[in-house]
Amino acid sequence: MKLQLDILLATALTIATVSMVIAQVPPEKQFRVLNEPSYAPYITEYDASYRFLSSENQSFFTLPFQLMRDLDYTRWIWDANRNNPVGDNSTLSLGRDGNLVLAELDGQIKWQTNTANKGVTGFKILPNGNMVLHDKNDKFIWQSFDYPTDTLLVGQSLKLNGVNKLVSRTSDMDGSDGPYSMVLGDKGLTMYVNKTGQPLAYGGWPSQDFRGTVTFAVRREFDNLTEPSAYELLLEPAPEPTTTNPGNNRRLLQARPIGTGSGTINLSKVNYNGTISYLRLGSDGSLKAFSYFPPATYLEWEESFAFFSKNFVRPCGLPSFCGEFGYCSRGMCVGCPTPKGLFAWSEKCSAPKTTEFCGGRNKGKTVKYYKIVGVVHFNGPYVNDGQGPVSVNECKAKCDHDCKCLGYFYKEKDKKCLVAPLIGTLIKDANTSFIGYIKY
Question: Entry's InterPro entries (predicted)?
Answer without folding.
Answer: Bulb-type_lectin_dom (IPR001480), Bulb-type_lectin_dom_sf (IPR036426), SLSG/EP1 (IPR035446)
